[in-house]
Amino acid sequence: MAIHDQRIKVIHNPVAGGRNRKRLRIALQALRKHASKVKVSPTKYAGHGIKRADKAINRKPDKIPYDIICAAGGDGTIAEVANGMRGSDCPLLVLPLGTANVFARELGLGTSMRKIAAMVETLHPKQVYPGLMGNKRFIMMVGVGIDSLSVASLETSLKRRIGGAAYVVAALKAIKRMKELELTVNVDGASYETANVIVTNGRFYGGPFTISPNAALEEPVFHVVMLHQKGLWAALRYGLALAMGRLPYLKDVTITKGTHVRIESKNALPVQADGDYVGMLPVEVRIDSFPLTVLAPRTHTSEAAES
Fold first, then answer.
1. DSSP character for 173?
2. Residue 2: inside a domain, yes or no?
3. pLDDT under 70 in the chain at which residues?
4. Is the pTM higher than 0.85?
5. Fewest CB atoms within 10 A around its CB: which of 7, 269, 271, 278?
6. Helix, strand and coil percent figures for the chain, each rounded to 5
7. Which domain does 107 fall in, by range?
8. What per-residue confidence (pLDDT) applies to 3?
9. What CATH number did the domain enclosing 253 receive?
10. What is the pLDDT of residue 302?
11. Residues 18 and 85 placed together within one structural domain of the fold
């Protein structure tokens, strides 16, 4: 699907700092060379991306509809836009401006805006399968454990100032609660006891790190990654193994597949989805029956995904 002569609605999450403004400008210049119209609409509050996307797709009869919806921001912004697009076959274009940009890596776009700008005319539509938590979509993952404790402790203002390092600060705050990580995870009727769980439909986690090497966005199934040990030393060991690409192969890590997952605990524990706090346990997730059409390279390599 060539972007040439298409009408594009760009839903942008404004991020402080000149670097992201410059990166967005590079992408917009490339889009405007090819598209007949590029309209940029910034989001103003949490959830605004859902409304922006829904309005862009369901335009009034006297308005010409947009051909492509573009999400410019992090994974949370992309998830909002994807929620507003549910049920539509309008394609989504991703411009990664977040901290981890896991979805863009998964699609093979990478994170270099100059590389993305150079390939915009060669991207092709591809169907992927988000997850559903209640009636709300998530594009990549839901997690409960040290990651959700950290996300719940994250200070947004600090994240804007120091970026990914804010997660390290949040993780240190979460240490004192790790003893509470006692989870029961039900995957398509099979029950497991564990300390941490990530329900994902992709390979990557926290950026370029592989958490489930056989997962694929285009397959309508979750990979459920369970890290069974809890405590500070276990968290450090898991973090090191993740950085070294060894986490999926540890003896105390279980990976199984399913389409319906329920997570519960006797303790009050937070849940994260696509890197944002979304509530408390218990939680049930399932594969969305409506696929999401995205624009991606026809083929991609691990190098592109990790750029």
1. H
2. no
3. 1-2, 15-18, 155-170, 172, 300-307
4. yes
5. 7
6. 35, 30, 35
7. 7-129+291-305
8. 83
9. 2.60.200.40
10. 43
11. yes
